[in-house]
Specification:
It is a single chain. Helices cover 65% and strands 0% of the residues. It has helices at residues 8-18, 38-52, 56-66, 69-75, 85-96, 99-111, 123-139, 144-157, 161-173. The chain starts with 7 loop residues before the first helix and ends with a helix.
C-alpha cells in the first residue's frame, strides 16, 4: 500500500483522509546468501528497522522482497507470518552470517587474486581487494591475532620473487 502511492497528491489525500503520515518503506539490498553480502544486508536491515521504527509486518514484506536464491529457500517457510521476523533473521545469521565462514570467504578472495608483478600493473585492483577484505574482517569482529598472520602469509604469496625479496628486507628492518 505505502509503495503504491507515487505522487504527492495521492500521499496528501491518504494523510488527510486517514490522519496518518505517509512514509515510504526503505528497500533492503538483495541478498542471495553470499557471505560477502551478509554484513551490508544485515546492517541495512538493523539500521533502518531501528531508525525508522519499522514494524514486523513491514519487515516481513521487506524481507520477502529482498531475499533470493539460497537465502530465500532457507526461510521461505517462515515468510508468511510477521511473528517470524526474529526467527528469520536468526536463521539467516546462523547460516550466512557466521564470522568464521565470512573470514574463510574473505581469505579465499585473497587467494584468488593474481600475483603482483614487478611492474606493479595490477597493484591498484589488488590493493582495493585487500582493503575490502580487511574491512570485512574488521566489521565482523575478527581479531588481528586470529587471522592477521594468515592474512599476511596469503599476501606474501602474491608477491613476485623480486617484490618478495624487497618485502623480506623491509620486514627485517622493522
Amino acid at each position: 500500500f505505502r509503495d503504491s502511492l507515487r505522487t504527492s497528491d495521492e500521499r496528501s489525500r491518504v494523510e488527510e483522509r486517514y490522519g496518518v503520515e505517509y512514509t515510504r518503506l526503505p528497500k533492503l539490498p538483495q541478498f542471495d546468501g553470499a557471505t560477502k553480502s551478509w554484513p551490508i544486508f544485515y546492517q541495512s536491515y538493523a539500521d533502518t528497522t531501528r531508525r525508522m521504527r519499522i514494524t514486523d509486518s513491514d519487515n516481513i514484506y521487506r524481507l520477502s522482497e529482498a531475499l533470493q536464491g539460497p537465502a530465500k529457500r532457507c526461510v521461505e517457510h517462515l515468510l508468511w507470518d510477521a511473528n517470524n521476523v526474529i526467527s528469520i533473521m536468526e536463521s539467516l545469521a546462523a547460516k550466512f552470517g557466521n564470522p568464521q565462514l565470512i573470514a574463510a570467504d574473505a581469505m579465499q578472495r585473497l587467494s584468488n587474486l593474481p600475483r603482483i608483478d614487478s611492474d606493479l600493473k595490477n597493484l591498484a585492483g589488488f590493493a582495493n581487494e585487500v582493503s575490502q577484505v580487511r574491512h570485512i574482517l574488521k566489521a565482523n569482529g575478527l581479531q588481528r591475532d586470529t587471522h592477521g598472520s594468515y592474512f599476511v602469509h596469503v599476501l606474501e604469496q602474491k608477491l613476485s620473487p623480486t617484490l618478495s625479496l624487497i618485502w623480506g628486507s623491509e620486514k627485517k628492518k622493522a
